[in-house]
Amino acid sequence: MEQTKKSGFVALIGRPNVGKSTLMNRLIGQKIAITSNKPQTTRNRIQTVYTDERGQIVFLDTPGIHKAKNKLGNYMVNVAQNTLKEVDVILWLVEASDYIGAGERHIAEQLQNVKTPVILVMNKIDMVKKEDILVFIDAYRKLYDFAEIIPVSAWKGTNTDDVIDTLFQYLPYGPMFYDQDTVTDQPMRQIVSELIREKALRSLDQEIPHGIAVYIDTMKERPDGSIMDIEATIVCERESHKGIIIGKQGKMLQKIGSLARKEIEEMLEMKVNLKIWVKVRKEWRNSDVQLKNFGYNPKDV
Fold first, then answer.
1. pTM (two decimals)
2. What is the pLDDT of residue 41?
3. If you ran DSSP here, which 8-state letter would residue 46 be given?
């Protein structure tokens, strides 16, 4: 029987903070990847699935490729680089600009050894003048031999349909990998812990968020199905950070908890009773044991 549907894997790459998770959430049509204006928001390779009558695209939203500073950084870079070898198409996201910095040049170097077609998505076009976009595209054309270049605004949804259409052109014919109603392979506990981490990232000062992880201690639905009880722990690296996360009279922790609870309730479509604790684990980002505890595979570090 002739295959009529296309399916394949697409890696989403780019410097930290260019809008990869925002684009992923936009393409999938719901929130899976957490977003914040702080670098290193995405730490694991998040797999999301887009399905329509043409077939299926499995997106791998990788941590940003950057020069690593600790074991967690090494882990993130290795995950991103290994992903490039496993996919059918690479979607490289950059900000609309003709300034091509060291971060972009570093990624272009990493791609020199890759035979996979690379599609450049130029994001945040809503922030620049229309007439400048062609100049920016021309600058990137000189950097790398892209299969396609697509200007978009992930935040506003401009041209994001073109991204899906173009990806299907480059994907092979073949059977689907997931049921058509699957949108992510992330376990629910992981999505919940990431949502709490997102609210902490957005609420706290610049310095602390790099040093936090969130794990779910318990997540149980009550027998009558009325409420989901969730207990979570935010882990930080210093006592002083713990005080800031909790805040005066517990105000900051309350804020993080209530923002997270609201979104978790929307996702689970049920009431949530959320309790959050804060613990100190010194230097956890350089400890194989701690990294493993928080869901990062030390083999990838």
1. 0.59
2. 42
3. E
